[in-house]
Amino acid sequence: MTVKVTGYQWKWQYEYLGEDVAFMSELATPESVIYDTNAARNRENYLQEVSQPLVIPARTKVRFLLTAKDVIHSWWVVDLGVKKDAIPGFVTETWAYVEEPGTYRGECAELCGKGHAFMPIVVEVVEPEQYQAWIGEKKKAAAAERELANKQFTLDDLMARGEEAYNRSCGACHMANGEGIPGVFPGLKNSKVALGPVEQHLDVVVNGVSGTSMQAFGGQLSEVDLAAVITYERNAWGNNTGDLVQPIDVLKFKQGQ
Amino acid sequence: MAHGPAKGIGRWLFTTNHKDIGTLYLWFSFAMFILGGFFAMVIRAELFQPGMQLVKPEFFNQMTTMHGLVMVFGAIMPAFVGLANWLIPMQIGAPDMALPRMNNLSFWILPFAFALLASTLFMEGGAPNFGWTFYAPLSTTYAPSTVNYFIFGVHIMGASSIMGSINIIATVLNMRAPGMTLMKMPLFVWTWLITAFLLIAVMPVLAGAVTMMLMDINFGTSFFDAAGGGDPVLFQHVFWFFGHPEVYIIILPAFGVISHIIPAFSRKPLFGYSSMVYATASIAFLSFIVWAHHMFLVGMPISGELYFMYATMLIAIPTAAKVFNWVSTMFRGSLTFETPMLFAIAFVILFTIGGFTGLMLSIAPSDVQYHDSYFVVAHFHYVMVAGAVFSGTAATYFWLPKWCGRMYNETMGKLQFWIAFIGFNITFFPQHFLGLAGMPRRYADYALQFSDWNMISSIGSFIYGAAQILFLFNVIYTIKAGKPVKENSPWEGAEGLEWEVPCPAPYHTFTTPPEVK
Amino acid sequence: MSTENQYYVPEQSKLPILAAIGLGLIAWGAGGWVQGDNPAKFFAGALLLAFTLYLWFGAVIKENMQGLPNAQVKRSYVWGMGWFIFSEVMFFAAFFGALFYVRNFALPWLSEGETQSIWNGFEAEWPLMSTPEQALTDDAATMKGPEQNMSFPGWSNLLSWLPLWNTIVLITSSWTVHVAHAALKNNDRSKFNLWLGITVLLGAVFLVLQVEEYVHAYSEMGLTLESGIYGTTFFMLTGFHGAHVTMGTIMLGIQFIRGLKGHFSADDQFGFEASSWYWHFVDVVWVGLFIFVYVLG
Ligand code: HEA
Ligand code: HEA
Ligand code: CUA
Ligand SMILES: [Cu+2]
């Protein structure tokens, strides 16, 4: 079996080739813990926990194809003896054959910007039967998520979901308070895009801004999350536009391209 | 021309005297060492415990990058150019450097280059944050806009290095006293001759690398962008074609220094002089054909990996010749252990450890685990701190009486040595374990299993830093109040033309060349 | 004062630090300029540097006429110029190396194996007329290949192929500068002036042709710095070469003026010699360019 691993600033995407299953895997340690030494010391798996681990079957040769969307990353799982650079525009290859089921933790090993230390890898190695069951579940969940795209949400729903998705996917650059990092990442508070036409906002988020670290999130987040995040950005931190972007709007925008 | 130095600040700004310029280089490099060391202290303080306490991750990256850049280009290289300026003309019996005005220019570019580099710390977007190896596209498309200052800073700093090297080559090839054939030259001169050649060969390649970056960033070219048919890995090839010879640029003059100090305190001539010369030349030659051992994980064809692995291992052979020659020089010598000798012996031991870890890294299949981990950090601090910095410290104690006519305080010197030696090993030995346990380098924060060794390493680094304060104090104390040296040489066993002129060396030496037999 | 066997060590000089300030200003100014700041600092630095170099070379020439430097000092100059040219060789080597790497490794890798899944339909060729991005997104691509390239246009168009003329002009100029040198050594001043003048002229002709080629490339061939890796390597290599020809022409031009003023003698002519070495070097680089960028392009 083959898993395609794509490095992003600062998360990994795993695609099970031929299975139609793909997801992002991001750091699950909250920022508040990182900035609190005591909390950090007491957190199990500090900086080595992710939103969704990579799951692979034991005693199976797994081929990894690596690439990156922005800068060079390097996919390293020390206990598996696997490390390979993920280079934008090229695909590199490596493989693993794991005897023992269990949890294997790794990290990004090539300097890739401010979140370099914060894009860990967790590989869950399970018995082959368990793996089959898991991948089946995954496919069902993906279908359900696609269904949601047709539902209408309330502003509160979207804001709640949006805040969560924002902190997970956008906060690393634009910061939780929406102020960004001057000179590197623009603030979204009072930003022309966040206060301007929805179309343009959709365009930036769905397609990214090429040649900058603003990624295309169209393929990373579900329609629901995209709608939520955009709604959130248009209404948080005093950006009170009152605009409500529904998943269906995102879907239409994508299809209209 | 027999007069002394000019008065006031003009002496330093307008000087054409190799000793003045050497002094300028040495003080500049020490200032940069403190600055780079300060950045290192920020790194170590942040890594003292897990969790972010002192700085933000983006600033941490700037610290790592600036630490590497300032130490390599601002501290170590100018330190050895300073030694070259002071010593080469005296050691070969020349009245000065071959091109004295250009010599002044080479130095005075540096303060401007580094002021420019350091000023980016205060600009919007911050200082370079892409590592001292500045891999594209992190350093191009994704870099803060201050990267442009970095690029032009590297350009002029490179111009300084090239001019300095041209000067050294011209001096060595053209200005030796009558009778001093090439194979009679002191080893420090030999190692610098070869180093200067390396510099002239690779600094332009670095200039090429940053120029390509400049074009990619500002003028739409696609050297490092696959979308246009380029390749990010191309950057790494160009950089390491410079970068690997660069590490020998750092270590070869250090070898030269050690080859003077060990015979002096063994009271025996250097064992195997000519093999030392050939070994130096072989190292220089090999350094051009091994660069991709830094790139074992980019997905090179397997034949390429094998070639670079074996070629790299070959370097151990001429280096072994050197180490064995130093040991043989000491063998059955009547050894004494003054401060320079202590540093020299520590150099031989610790550099060998660093060399061995280098050899481990060169094994392509195992480098999969070591690459970009703290194991690499441990390796290169063993060769660069215990190598280059220890040899620079040894050289300072050894030649300080010649420079200022006063003797340093032996007790303080020894004290510094032991603090430095112990502090150094506490700092960097544990980093091997960290790397093997899976801690990547350039990490602003780490998982809990790395806590203990990181804390120990940080404590060691503060001890090592304290030794540097002692060093500074020691040097200033010597200059101001050291015991005056009456004879030409305070060292019983030291050989060479520089020991045949008074202490301190007169402003002008060898205006008429000495006869060498 | 210096005697025959004493090496001339100049007194204190204000020139180097002025040059250093100039270079510092250039770096500082250029760093801001490329991001759209006012270029005043850059030009101030460049002016200061040029002025300082003028004074500096003036001082060296004057000392030389006073006979201060002996033969040994002049050997230092020879080593200095020689190693400087070597450093320039290495600078070009970096760009030739990049060209070599791209053609032989990067492009094939982009079009084979698993990497194909990123750049669907991309095919490696040289000159690269269609970039990987173009293979994917067609006209939406920001990195587009050129419409035409500079390669050998076939025997029937040989005579209208500008690079060939450039080659002829430069090789001839290498020969004329050699004739001038020989004339100087024979103390034949008018022949020297004539042939050196011709060399400078040929240099200028080369530059005009090169500019012509660039204008043509930009306006009619769709070939620019931004035309993917082909445009990148083409303009960077020929552009740096052109900059060096400009430098060389200026250097030889100065020697020409010095010749008219009666500088140099049959056995002492280092300023001219150094410039002529530089010129030969520039010529050799061109031959490399002609082969690797044009003929084999
Ligand atoms: C002074 C600088 C210096 C020196 C001298 C060396 C010396 C060597 N280095 Fe090191 N190296 C660096 C500075 C230096 N290095 C730096 C800065 C980096 C990291 C760059 C970065 O990524 O930031 C690096 C990284 C680095 C890597 C890449 C690691 C990675 O990123 O994955 C490798 C891999 O091959 C390597 C190998 C070697 C080898 C084989 C030597 C050899 O020359 C060592 C030879 C010496 C000995 C072997 C010891 C003495 C010999 C004997 C006592 C004789 C008996 C022994 C035998 C016959 C085996 N080095
Ligand atoms: C020759 C070059 C050189 C030298 C001398 C040093 C010296 C030191 N270096 Fe290193 N270092 C590099 C070259 C060098 N380094 C390079 C090239 C890198 C890679 C950068 C990159 O990844 O891009 C690196 C990276 C590097 C790292 C890894 C950072 C990371 O990956 O994020 C660390 C971490 O511990 C470190 C520590 C130190 C320490 C503690 C010293 C000490 O030896 C410093 C001692 C000196 C002083 C402390 C200054 C003098 C004293 C004072 C100013 C008084 C105040 C002191 C106290 C508060 C005690 N260095
Ligand atoms: Cu991704 Cu480091
Ligand atoms: Cu190396």
Low-confidence sequence ranges of chain A = none
How would the global form of chain C be characterised? globular
Please give the number of β-strands of chain A.
10
Order of helices and strands of chain A: EEEHHEEEEEEEHHHHHHH
In short:
Chain A is α+β, with helices and mostly antiparallel strands and 257 residues long. Chain A contains 9 helices and 10 strands.
Describe the structure.
The complex is a heterotrimer of chains A (257), B (517) and C (297). Chain A has 257 residues and is an alpha+beta fold. Chain A is 33% helix and 23% strand. A five-stranded mixed beta sheet of chain A has the order 3-2-1-5-8. A five-stranded mixed beta sheet of chain A has the order 4-10-9-6-7, with helices on one face. In chain A, helix 4 (155-169) crosses helix 8 (223-235). The mean pLDDT of chain A is 91. Chain B has 517 residues and is mostly helical. Chain B is 68% helix and 1% strand. In chain B, helix 2 packs parallel to helix 4, helix 7 (232-266) runs antiparallel to helix 11 and helix 11 runs parallel beside helix 14 (410-437). By secondary structure, chain C is mostly helical. The termini of chain C are far apart. The mean pLDDT of chain C is 92. Classes of the chains: A alpha+beta (257), B mainly alpha (517), C mainly alpha (297). Chains in contact: A-B, A-C, B-C. The structure holds heme-A (2 copies), dinuclear copper ion (CUA) and copper (II) ion. Residues 133, 247, 250-251, 293-294, 312, 315-316, 319-320, 323, 352, 355-356, 358-359, 361-362, 367, 370-372, 376, 379-380, 383-384, 387-388 of chain B line the site of one heme-A.
List the helices and strands and how they pair.
The complex is a heterotrimer of chains A (257), B (517) and C (297).
Chain A lengths: L1 E7 L2 E6 L4 E5 L5 H4 L2 H6 L11 E4 L3 E8 L4 E5 L4 E5 L5 E6 L4 E7 L12 E6 L1 H21 L6 H15 L1 H4 L17 H4 L2 H10 L15 H13 L11 H9 L2
Parallel strand pairs in A: 1-5, 4-10
Antiparallel strand pairs in A: 1-2, 2-3, 5-8, 6-7, 6-9, 9-10
Helix pairs in contact in A: 4-8, 8-9
Chain B lengths: L9 H5 L3 H29 L10 H36 L7 H20 L27 H28 L12 H32 L13 H35 L6 H15 L14 H13 L1 H15 L8 H24 L1 H7 L3 H31 L1 E2 L2 H28 L13 H31 L1 E2 L33
Antiparallel strand pairs in B: 1-2
Helix pairs in contact in B: 2-3, 2-4, 2-15, 3-4, 3-5, 3-7, 3-13, 4-5, 5-6, 6-7, 6-8, 7-8, 7-10, 7-11, 7-13, 8-10, 10-11, 11-13, 11-14, 13-14, 13-15, 14-15
Chain C lengths: L14 H19 L6 H27 L4 H40 L21 H6 L24 H24 L3 H32 L7 H33 L9 H26 L2
The structure holds heme-A (HEA) (2 copies), dinuclear copper ion (CUA) and copper (II) ion.
